[in-house]
Specification:
The chain is of the alpha+beta class and about 230 residues long. The chain contains 5 helices and 9 strands; from the N terminus they run αββββαββαααβββ. The chain is globular.
Length: about 230
């Protein structure tokens, strides 16, 4: 016999539309080894394309987690995947003043997690972080709205602000600097970072939390050979 939840709990066993305290069941799909291809990057591209075709909102949104050494303190934030290439997963950000920049400077490992609720799927990526070239970065930077390009120059990401007026002042300074100039160069402190995967897990929700999970692990660093194993849910 269990006791009633303490009134000190602000949240206790939140649920969807089912019996209070019981989370919704996952029933939309299954995953077997026969559905997987040898490369996790190709497999991810297949799943991502399916998410796009299924009108999953912002399938490129993902959690980017880093950890600082020697403390081991972990930090996480939502970002957008902007590129997938033969080496890995690329995001763009400030690499001069941000918390993630400091973490990666001390610890070159990071993780990405994608959650596609409408398909009851998630993908987990772990790997080393490398910066993309300035040429690659400029190519992406040119696709951003002008305001976002100006903002990348202006924001001293993660630094303390006394008020929004300071940020708006920096934006004004950058606007003046590039007034009448459509082509804005990418800042040297801003750009792309590629997570080169060492492991990628594909997760398909199943009933009773007996999910299908398959883990790709790179056999040898620097080579495109992968071991695929089913994991217990």
């Amino acid at each position: 016999m269990t006791s009633a939840p303490s009134s000190s709990k602000l949240i206790f066993a939140p649920a969807g539309t089912n019996t209070p305290g019981q989370a919704d069941q996952y029933t939309k799909g299954t995953l077997s080894s026969s559905q997987l291809v040898p490369s996790p990057l190709t497999q991810f591209h297949t799943w991502f394309s399916h998410a796009q075709a299924s009108s999953v909102p912002l399938p490129e949104a993902c959690n980017f987690s880093t950890a600082s050494l020697p403390s081991g303190r972990v930090s996480a934030r939502m970002v957008y995947l902007k590129e997938l290439d033969s080496r890995g997963f690329v995001i763009y950000s400030n690499w001069g003043t941000s918390r993630k920049a400091a973490d990666v400077e001390s610890n070159g490992w990071a993780a990405l997690t994608f959650w596609w609720r409408e398909l009851e799927r998630q993908v987990r990526v772990e790997g080393r972080v490398e910066r993309v070239s300035e040429v690659e970065g400029q190519r992406y930077f040119d696709t951003r709205a002008r305001g976002s390009r100006v903002g990348a120059w202006a924001s001293r990401q993660s630094q303390v602000l006394e008020g929004r007026e300071g940020l708006e002042g920096w934006v004004g300074d950058v606007e003046k600097r590039f007034e009448g100039q459509e082509k804005i160069p990418i800042p040297d402190f801003w750009g792309g970072a590629r997570v080169v995967p060492e492991s990628v897990e594909f997760w398909q929700g199943r009933e009773s939390r007996l999910h299908d999970r398959f883990l790709y692990t790179r056999v040898k660093e620097g080579e495109d050979e992968w071991k695929i194993e089913r994991l217990s849910p």
